[in-house]
């Protein structure tokens, strides 16, 4: 049996991931506030048969400062709600997975659950969701319901920071638990339309989630019937042990940020250990490595574009993920090498949109296909199908008897 | 020129107006059903498409209510998807202020307004319902008297956020490196009784600046709330006289808020049944009423008035001899109370049943939810126009009884007659919902200062 091909995702944000991306982008500067922009990017990714696109989100303006707005007007500032953008482009696409980011620190788990379930309904089973923890005190001030102390990123081991991060992830874990419970709160066959008894639903097939936790309690059931995938795909971005454990317990897909192949192998080992520790019974996490990519026809041209961007930004580019600068062929070789570290695929963050996206779709994807590493088209089905994840049984349904 | 009629389409709701037992009844959750209804409304040049909201499944006698359609999609998500398959139709969502926060909801509505090119509308509702609160962080602690206070401050806060970016903020000076021409993009501070928040809003000013605001409450507080700031009011007055009384009352309130009578549109929710002859339409109306009131639903609706367990009652037999229980907690949860004086209403129903010799089901069919407009397309067009021209309404939110085809016949047969009379548009002349409704541009703080 041939090795399964790798999974390829693209992370979409603004006009690209480089802070000076907008200076070189061919797109109108206000493009991120139009549906046409997102539809064209998702369409481009779909023409290359990529697995999914993710959409970034945050309940605050972008900032280069860790905990407050930076007041800068020389970079892209402002964004739309990612989940609604995903819903807006769902009817315009047919195969590609749509994975918006949503904060779980300041939002209602009930609303998030019904929104993602609805995204799954309107996309015919292509919804994913990346829950995100909001640690910034500026975001908390937009809600006025709790105060978060300012975080000092220079002192990650400060006991107060460790406690805060632990609490935020514990709350996020409760939120995902509730969101998933609500997705299961309707059995697939709950709607019966039985004219003889006058019943539209069989209430025995609707279930109260009855969740009570430290931060909230949610009674259920959902108002939305079970989504087509049963459980839409949950993805987590993780850089450290606490989020690795969070992903192992609650996610289907994890995005990680290795710096090289050796680091990738170490992270994969750490994640597999975390799965063991938490007693994961679901299929193993699909581990996708994040890479910021800047692609051009020759290594020199790519380098020059990178230097130009850095010069425009006034600083060398830094990121939580490794940055690749080179040709699509070189990147294909690198992905092949990294993949042998046990990765299931990659989430590429284009440095400049749309240029680096079209380099991915029109040059990288064919190069990977030439190497036998990527599918030629969509096999059909849901996002779970595409990722090789079975449709989960409903936690509330009695197991079928023989 | 005669008054122009506003038309909106309500997606069939989770109550017994919606008939699910008919062979023509399709899915209430498949996106295709929403696409069909929205595109039909747009084909008919309607002003907007309307979604209700429910945040907890209804219960009766402590159990999930199973006789009506149950389940619906999340309002904002399905509206954003519908923006992709329509081009002019307004997209109105009912969104509760009790279980949301201004920053998040203002951001979602602003996003919807951008993604639809200025077609977003928000039906502001409010509840103090602890039953629904069990699904939310907030719980149900909101005092009843604070419902409208919170709603009003919520809308004020949302407007501050919608105006937090100036018009045309983008300079896009790629050589000079200036993306925005704004000192403090999205900066806001709101320090009020209900909300004390400050920071930066992430969404630039939208095509409508303020999405259209609808209001659906009928109490004096609700009317005052609408008069103070809503663009349209979703009312429920079925008869011409009631409609005219409501219309006069609400429009008279506007001057006190410095507003013109045209600044608030009155749009009652109505049902309709068409036929080739008036007699055929009446026959169809009766058939639909029987579908809407199954034997089980008849008992259930009676229980809502009597507030007692009537599960042993014969649906074809006489009404209960006892009076309603007005002391116990409401037997039905998750919907608004419907009867001001249950004992008096029950006595009227009993008297009517005895006089006409009606059993439970036939009595319920007789006294509840009769269709608003029944007749040939010509008669319905004439009646609707009469309603509008005699100031009982500015237009209607049509509530079809079938998903997804319930609007087809109206669009095919009634809309052309309204157009012939010169009281309904023959093409969209604007692009935003504000323009469709004939509303003035949003009254921003700058506009208010400029006078």
UniProtKB/TrEMBL annotation, chain A:
Residues annotated as domain Luciferase-like: 40-306
Keywords: Flavoprotein, FMN, Monooxygenase, Oxidoreductase
Superkingdom to which the source organism belongs: Bacteria
Signal peptide: none
Binding site for FMN: 57, 101
Keyword Flavoprotein among record annotations: yes
PANTHER family according to UniProt: ALKANESULFONATE MONOOXYGENASE-RELATED (PTHR30011), C2H2 FINGER DOMAIN TRANSCRIPTION FACTOR (EUROFUNG)-RELATED (PTHR30011:SF16)
Record protein name field: Flavin-dependent oxidoreductase, luciferase family (Includes alkanesulfonate monooxygenase SsuD and methylene tetrahydromethanopterin reductase)
Organism of provenance: Micromonospora humi
UniProtKB/TrEMBL annotation, chain B:
Span of domain Luciferase-like: 22-390
Residues that, per the record, bind FMN: 94, 148, 219
A Pfam family hit: Bac_luciferase
GO molecular function, one term: monooxygenase activity
InterPro entries referenced in this protein's UniProt entry, alphabetically: Diverse_substr_monoxygenases, Luciferase-like_dom, Luciferase-like_sf, NTA_MOA
Alphabetized PANTHER family for the sequence: ALKANESULFONATE MONOOXYGENASE-RELATED (PTHR30011), C2H2 FINGER DOMAIN TRANSCRIPTION FACTOR (EUROFUNG)-RELATED (PTHR30011:SF16)
Family: Belongs to the NtaA/SnaA/DszA monooxygenase family.
Name the record gives this protein: FMN-dependent oxidoreductase, nitrilotriacetate monooxygenase family
Organism: Micromonospora humi
Lineage summary: Bacteria, Bacillati, Actinomycetota, Actinomycetes, Micromonosporales
């Amino acid at each position: 049996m041939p090795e399964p091909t790798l999974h390829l995702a693209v992370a979409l944000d603004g006009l690209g991931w480089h802070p000076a991306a907008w200076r070189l982008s061919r797109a109108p500067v206000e493009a991120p506030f139009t549906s046409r922009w997102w539809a064209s990017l998702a369409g481009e990714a779909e023409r290359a048969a990529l697995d999914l696109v993710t959409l970034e989100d945050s309940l605050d303006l972008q900032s280069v400062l860790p905990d407050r707005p930076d007041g800068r007007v020389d970079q892209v500032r402002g964004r739309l709600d990612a989940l609604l953008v995903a819903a807006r482009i769902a009817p315009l696409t047919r195969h590609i997975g749509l994975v918006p980011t949503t904060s779980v620190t300041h939002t209602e788990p009930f609303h998030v659950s019904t929104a993602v379930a609805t995204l799954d309904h309107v996309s015919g089973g292509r919804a994913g969701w990346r829950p995100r923890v909001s640690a910034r005190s500026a975001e908390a001030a937009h809600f006025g319901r709790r105060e978060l102390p300012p975080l000092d990123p220079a002192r990650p081991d400060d006991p107060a920071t460790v406690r805060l991060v632990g609490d935020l992830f514990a709350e996020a874990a409760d939120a995902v638990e509730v969101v998933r419970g609500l997705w299961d709160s309707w059995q697939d066959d709950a709607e019966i339309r039985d004219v003889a008894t006058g019943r539209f639903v069989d209430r025995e097939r609707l279930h109260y989630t009855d969740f009570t936790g430290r931060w909230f309690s949610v009674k259920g059931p959902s108002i939305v019937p079970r989504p087509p995938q049963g459980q839409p795909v949950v993805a987590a971005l993780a850089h450290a042990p606490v989020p690795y454990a969070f992903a192992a317990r609650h996610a289907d897909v994890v995005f990680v940020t290795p710096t090289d192949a050796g680091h990738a192998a170490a992270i994969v080992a750490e994640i597999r250990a975390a799965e063991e520790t938490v007693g994961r019974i679901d299929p193993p996490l699909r581990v996708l490595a994040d890479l910021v990519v800047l692609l051009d026809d020759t290594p020199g041209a790519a380098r020059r574009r990178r230097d130009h961007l850095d010069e425009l930004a006034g600083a060398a580019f830094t990121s939580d993920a490794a940055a690749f600068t080179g040709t699509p062929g070189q990147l294909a070789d690198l992905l092949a090498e990294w993949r042998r570290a046990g990765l299931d695929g990659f989430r590429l963050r284009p440095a400049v949109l749309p240029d680096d996206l079209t380099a991915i779709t029109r040059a990288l994807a064919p190069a990977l296909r030439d190497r036998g590493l990527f599918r030629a088209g969509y096999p059909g089905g849901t996002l779970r199908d595409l990722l090789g994840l079975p449709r989960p049984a409903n936690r509330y349904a009695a197991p079928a008897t023989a | 020129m005669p008054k122009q009629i506003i038309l909106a389409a309500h997606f069939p709701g989770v109550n017994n107006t919606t008939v699910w037992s008919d062979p023509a009844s399709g899915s209430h959750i498949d996106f295709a059903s929403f696409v069909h209804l929205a595109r039909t409304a747009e084909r008919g040049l309607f002003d907007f498409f309307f979604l209700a909201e429910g945040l907890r499944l209804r219960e009766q006698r402590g159990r999930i209510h199973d006789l009506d359609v149950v389940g619906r999609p999340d309002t904002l998500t399905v509206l954003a998807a519908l923006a992709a398959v329509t081009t002019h139709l307004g997209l109105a969502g009912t969104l509760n202020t009790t279980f949301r926060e201004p920053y998040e909801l203002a951001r979602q509505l602003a996003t919807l307004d951008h993604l639809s090119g200025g077609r977003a509308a928000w039906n502001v509702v409010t509840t103090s319902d602890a039953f629904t609160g069990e699904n939310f962080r907030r719980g149900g602690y909101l005092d009843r008297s604070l419902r409208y206070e919170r709603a009003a401050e919520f809308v004020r806060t949302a407007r501050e956020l919608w105006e937090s970016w100036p018009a045309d903020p983008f300079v896009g000076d790629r050589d000079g490196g200036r993306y925005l021409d704004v000192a403090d993009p999205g900066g806001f501070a709101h320090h009020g009784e209900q909300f004390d928040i400050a920071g930066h809003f992430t969404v630039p000013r939208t095509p409508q600046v303020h999405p259209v605001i609808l209001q659906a409450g009928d109490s004096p507080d609700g009317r005052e709330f609408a008069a103070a700031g809503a663009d349209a009011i979703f009312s429920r007055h079925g008869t011409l006289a009631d409609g005219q009384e409501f219309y006069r009352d609400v429009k008279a309130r506007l001057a006190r808020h410095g507003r013109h009578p045209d600044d608030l549109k009155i749009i009652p929710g109505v049902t309709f049944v068409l036929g080739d002859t008036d007699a055929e339409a009446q026959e169809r109306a009766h058939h639909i009423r029987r579908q809407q009131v199954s034997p089980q639903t008849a008992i259930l609706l009676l229980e809502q008035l009597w507030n007692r367990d009537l599960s042993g009652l014969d649906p074809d037999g006489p009404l209960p001899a006892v009076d309603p229980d007005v002391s116990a907690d409401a037997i039905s949860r998750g919907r608004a109370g419907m009867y001001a004086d249950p004992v008096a209403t029950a006595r009227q129903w009993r008297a009517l049943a005895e006089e006409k010799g009606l059993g439970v089901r036939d009595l319920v069919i007789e006294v509840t939810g009769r269709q608003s407009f029944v007749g040939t397309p010509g008669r319905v067009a004439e009646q609707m126009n009469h309603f509008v021209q005699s100031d009982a309404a500015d237009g209607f939110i049509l509530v079809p009884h079938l998903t997804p085809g319930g609007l087809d016949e109206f669009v095919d047969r009634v809309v052309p007659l309204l157009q012939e009379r010169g009281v309904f548009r023959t093409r969209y002349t604007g692009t935003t919902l504000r323009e469709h409704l004939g509303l003035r541009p949003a009254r921003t703080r700058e506009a208010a200062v400029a006078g």
